[in-house]
Amino acid sequence: MPKEIKNKHPQDVLKILGKEILPGTSVELDFEVAKLHTTTPIEVPIIIERSTKPGPVVLFTAGLHGDEINGVEIVRQLIAKKINIPVYGTIICIPVLNIFGFLHKDRDFPDGRDLNRVFPGSKTGSLASRVAHKMMTEVIPAVDYVIDFHTGGSTRFNAAHIRITPDDEQLKSLAEVFNAPFILYSPHLKKTFRSAVQKKGVPILLFEGGKSFFISNSISNSGVNGSKRILDHLGMLNRNKFKLSSPKKPSILIQESKWIRAARSGMFKPAINEGDLIKKGETIGQITDPFGKLHYSIKSTVNGYVINVNESPLIYQGDALFHVSTALAE
What we know:
Layout: E1 14-16, E2 19-21, E3 26-35, E4 41-50, E5 57-62, H1 69-80, E6 90-94, H2 99-104, H3 127-138, E7 145-152, E8 156-164, H4 169-178, E9 182-185, H5 193-199, E10 204-211, H6 217-233, E11 252-261, E12 266-270, E13 277-278, E14 283-288, E15 295-299, E16 304-310, E17 314-315, E18 320-328
Parallel strand pairs: 5-6, 5-7, 7-10, 8-9, 9-11
Antiparallel strand pairs: 1-2, 3-4, 4-6, 8-10, 8-16, 11-18, 12-14, 12-17, 13-16, 14-15, 16-18
Helix pairs in contact: 1-6
C-alpha cells in the first residue's frame, strides 16, 4: 500500500451492519430495507472482500435511483471480473441500494420519496429516511472512500464525468486519478448521499454517465477503468491480474456550466453528441413540427464542451436541451 494513503480503520475486525468481518474473508451481508405487506423481507446484498493485509476501506455504490441501471452495471462488472478482491484493505460493493425502485423500474422509493434527498435520514422517519439512516450509521462509519455511480434522467444522456465540490484538493486529485473525460465542479445539494458522506469526513466521488433505463458500453468502460485506477492509486488493485489502460488525456475540469433551452415546442433532433466541443453560433439541433411548417435551428449561445444531451424526440418550449461548459478551471 502506498505510504501516503492513510487507513482510518487499521483494526483487524471491521464491523458493518452489526457483523464482524475478519481479514482475509469474503462475506455477503443482507441489508434489510423493509418487509412487504406479506412480511416477506426485502434485502439488499452487500458484497465485502477483505485482504489479509491492512489497508483502506473503499465502498462502491449504485442504484440510489432505481432507474439508473448503468451504475448498477458498473458495480456488477467490478464484482463479476473480481476487481473487487483487493491485495490490501477492503472493498465493499452495493450494486443496488434502492432495490424497490430497481424492481419496479422506478426512480423513487415506494413512499414516493427520492432516496437521494433524505440523507442522513432518521431512525423513526419515512421508509426512505430509515434506509438512509441505516446506511449512514451502520455502513459509512467503516468506510474510508466512496465512489457513487449515477446516470442522467430518462431522456438526458450524460457524458461520463466526476462531480466534486470546488476547492477540495483531495477530491480533485482523486478525480484526476479516476480520469473520466470530464470533472465538473458541483456544489452539494441538501440531503443528498454525497453531502451526508462528505460531512462525515469521507471523500466521495460521484460518477455521472449515460441515461436511465439504458446501458452504454462506453460509459460502463469509463466507470470500470476509473475504478481500477482509484484502486491502483490506493495500492489495492491486483496488478498481476488486471491491466490499467493508459489515460489518453487528462480530464477536462469544468468550473461553470449552463443549460441551453428550447425556444420552441416541437419535434427535436440534436446535431451534436455529448462530449463534443461546440462554438458560439454553431447549429447544434433542429426543432420541427409534424406538419412541415416549422423548421427552427438551435444555435449555441456559448463556446464549450457538451456535458449532457436531451434525447427526447418531443420537447416543449423551455425544456433543457444541452448542458454546456462555460468556464474551464486551470
